From TrEMBL, chains A, B:
Lineage: Bacteria, Pseudomonadati, Pseudomonadota, Alphaproteobacteria, Rhodospirillales
Transmembrane segments: none
Organism name: Insolitispirillum peregrinum
Occurrences of domain Pyruvate carboxyltransferase (ranges): 6-268
An MF annotation (GO) of this entry: 2-isopropylmalate synthase activity
A GO biological-process term: isoleucine biosynthetic process
Name this polypeptide is given: Citramalate synthase
Catalytic function, reaction form: pyruvate + acetyl-CoA + H2O = (3R)-citramalate + CoA + H(+)
Length: 530, 530
């Protein structure tokens, strides 16, 4: 095996599950494991057998993996017990997983203060547990908790802990920066010292992001000789999270020349794998995530854009396609003609750069931006504006009027309640229709009333969900005459999301404008017939 | 000056303003500059005079700074022009800022491909522009765009560019990793090479986060001798953002032993400064942000909590108070009491830490926070809640009911208009009164109707202005059943501002709750008599 081969160990399902607000089901875990397997990760840590019902269910019915090894996590035996008669260790070693990863102490302070365990007994706990596990699994890994703090406090003892694991058959000793406080230069220095005792091909690194250095620390460890990296998808994990595998893999492979289990074709799936996890967690992907974020290859200024069109390496550190991402040209009031044309091309609008209508469109956009519109975060509204200008968007419906009533009063049960009710009058296929609906707020009521009228004609709207709603006052200094900008994010069941914008002196009017674009964009994309 | 002094240069208002979706007004910029000044940042880059109306307005009426120097950003002169007759350079050098920062090329490829400029002429463009700027400002900084790519491609030419700036009077040459693709070990190696040509005390670093290494890169540069770091609050910036000053300052000061302009007491404001910026941008603070995130010192239970209670350093890499954050125990609320007492003291509420009412107040706050309230950015609402619990806040008025009607229709002149009209029913000094008013939105109408009733009794309200209104959906996954949080910022003529919060399933209801607190707080502060 090449000296450049680095093994990737994913802990999304174990350490990642410690994230505040994250609560994986056994089904979630199986699906994520399969996604990691398909990606080409070497080790997938599934959880801690015996610790909770979800992990028991997962290991009771483990997913079929084709490339990765499944790892079960546990802790070294308790003090004063034998390893084969330890109730905590038993479910771990008998879980049937290919790999057993056992965490143990390596910091003398931690042994004496947190555990109250004799330092020599701790060495025996490590050795016994590892030796016992090697009789039950193909491969055993020792996770050295608090290794860096331990090394800084007492290097001899910390190294003895690693030796105890290594000498008793651990395939890997993994150095954990448990508190996340170690900086890259310290990591590099300490890992280099470790590799004099345990060969680097048997040393792993496990970092946390408490100083925003988890990725740099992991890469520093590899430079110093470590050949296993532990991390999680999107840096999930308690406190500030674990090392983000999605960010560190491309640097490792594309920039530092290391090999992993991922082929070049696997690498192009990184963006998708990252976003799928957010989808599962029902949270918006980080726009500015390294490599895979929606904004990672976005260009705003006019100068940047014309330079990127001349040669992408002027403003792109890698080709976005290598990680499955793509270039994005933003529209803003700084935009020159080259931005516009590039942006049109991106939305699939095939227009001759010399088309005289471009100047008119630019005027329209600039005028709207002057009045408070911003198409930076509202690509769907931009596309509708451009296509409408070219006469491509039909009039799916025409709103004649609406009225919304919000009322706060005491109800019959003596509770103070607030009700919103909307009435809309709409022209649709040459008929005028009215509808009324309630909602938990004026915009929600408007949405509900509009759907009542539109759904029978456009069943596509059944599959339209409003997922976020944001309001911003643009001219706070104008106080009551302020202009309001509303952004609405919508989604459909196929996982498409799009953002629309509305601007008005009246927040309800601005909201309606954004809502209208959300609906029209959905109908246009689906090719609804008028 | 000590060799350990590192100067901090903030570019939130210039490079940070390039972030997708960020759109600072001149008022925003002034407020952020003052916050940075108060924090102890050395240089504040305000923008690019002449580039857009916002930056012109900002430099036309710059905020008063007490500790920081204000910097104006611009570009070296064009090819074939003289520096004192360059229309781009003129507004920058005549902006009146203490410091002028000029960006120029240092990459031969960039000169020939993007600019089509002769390499020798580029050196003259740098030298001439810097020399010209030194006659107009106290200090001049050269930003070497694409420096690392340039150095890797042609080290001699890249260093010549720096020399041209340094020899012509630049106080600093700043090495920009414009594409963000350079890794920490490369940064360290290249900065070390630069300091052989320009002394480290004149070298700065400007990193982008495209590989999630911007913080590590900045720290690596300092280790190699650089003594200025450029970055932004919360890592704002285009694509994946700039180096996050909020993350790197604590590592620099608390772990690496460097000195900055921040005193130990300034350091405790980092968490607040970070969250204030997010509040201004109307976005949720990152829970897992290094050092300042809500989860940065959160402990989820069991072993970790008991270990932390024995000795915090078992699971905390620094004491959270050093950066103004606090420990959060997710399963037990024993840690909360001292935090509460500290918050009371902060608002001037003098209460015995052993007062039995504290437990009740804590329950009330926790219950409200559970339902979506957040008092982090809404100190006025927190103060009212606490003082109301202690019976200190009189009932200035009682709202019986309100009704708001928003109507979009065609007016007599044939224009499409949206009108909002509110009716309120209020008990006041034992009489019930009704009033109706119009506004440019439902909340504005409600505010107007309330004032009609309240003003004759409380003339203090004449001097109450709503300056900002923000809406955030807290549970986007709940779609139409989402909980909404509204923040209202108010001001009076004496320059006091205060923020209040309202939460409800109905946005109008949430808005009213925040509005009520804004009014009551004003009356309470002014000692209005009931």
């Amino acid at each position: 095996m090449s000296d450049k081969r680095v093994y990737l160990y994913d802990s999304t399902l174990r350490d990642g599950a410690q994230t505040q607000g994250v609560d994986f089901s056994a089904t979630d875990k199986a699906a994520i494991a399969q996604s990691l397997d398909l990606l080409g990760i070497d080790y997938i840590e599934g959880g801690w057998p015996g610790a909770n019902p979800t992990d028991d269910a997962f290991f009771g019915n483990p997913p079929t993996l084709h490339r990765a090894k499944l790892a079960a996590f546990g802790m070294t035996r308790r003090a004063g017990r034998s390893a084969d008669n330890d109730p905590g260790l038993a479910p771990v070693v008998s879980s049937g997983a290919d790999v057993i990863t056992l965490v143990g102490k390596s910091w003398d302070f931690q042994c004496t203060v947190a555990l109250g365990v004799d330092l020599d007994e701790n060495l025996r706990m490590i050795g016994d547990s590892i030796r016992h596990a090697t009789t039950k699994a193909k491969e055993v890994i020792y996770d050295a908790e608090h290794f860096f703090d331990g090394y800084k406090g007492n290097p001899d003892y910390a190294l003895k802990c690693l030796k105890a694991a290594h000498d008793n058959g651990a395939r890997w000793v993994v150095l954990c920066d448990t508190n996340g406080g170690t900086l890259p230069d310290e990591v590099e220095r300490i890992v280099a010292a470790v590799t004099k005792v345990v060969p680097g091909s048997h040393v792993g690194i496990h970092c946390h992001n408490d100083t925003e250095n988890a990725v740099a620390n992991s890469l520093a460890a590899v430079r110093a000789g470590a050949r296993q990296i532990q991390g999680t998808l999107n840096g999930l994990g308690e406190r500030c999270g674990n090392a983000n595998l999605i960010s560190l893999i491309p640097s490792l492979v594309l920039k530092m020349g290391y090999e992993t289990g991922l082929s070049a074709s696997d690498m192009t799936r990184l963006t998708q794998v990252s976003r799928e996890l957010d989808e599962r967690l029902n949270r918006a992907p980080l726009r500015n995530a390294a490599y895979v974020g929606e904004a990672a290859f976005a260009h705003k200024g006019g100068l940047h854009v014309s330079a990127v069109e001349k040669d992408p390496k002027c403003y792109e550190h890698i080709a976005p396609e290598l990680v499955g991402n793509h270039r994005k040209i933003l529209v803003s009031d700084q935009a020159g003609r080259s931005n516009f044309v590039a942006r049109f091309r991106e939305i699939g609008l095939d227009i001759d750069p010399k088309d005289p209508r471009i100047a008119g469109m630019m005027d329209e956009v600039k005028q709207r931006e002057f009045s408070g519109y911003s198409y930076d975060g509202a690509e769907a509204s931009f596309e509708l504006l451009a296509r409408s200008y070219l006469g491509e968007v039909p009039e799916y419906y025409r709103l004649s009027s609406f009225r919304v009533i919000d009322e706060r009063r005491w109800n019959a049960r003596g509770d103070l309640i607030t009700l919103s009710e909307a009435t809309v009058k709409v022209s649709l296929r040459d008929a005028t229709q009215m509808a009324v609906a309630e909602g938990n707020g004026p915009v929600n009521a408007l949405d509900a009333a509009l759907r009542k009228v539109l759904l029978p004609v456009y069943p596509e709207l059944q599959d339209l969900k409003l997922v976020d709603y944001k309001v911003r006052i643009l001219t706070p200094e104008a106080a009551t005459a302020a202009v309001t900008r509303v952004l609405i994010e919508s989604a459909d069941r196929r996982g498409n999301t799009w953002t629309t914008v509305g601007v008005s002196g009246n927040v309800i009017d601005a909201s309606y404008n954004a809502l209208r674009d959300a609906i029209v964009y959905k109908l246009f994309r689906d090719g609804a017939s008028v």
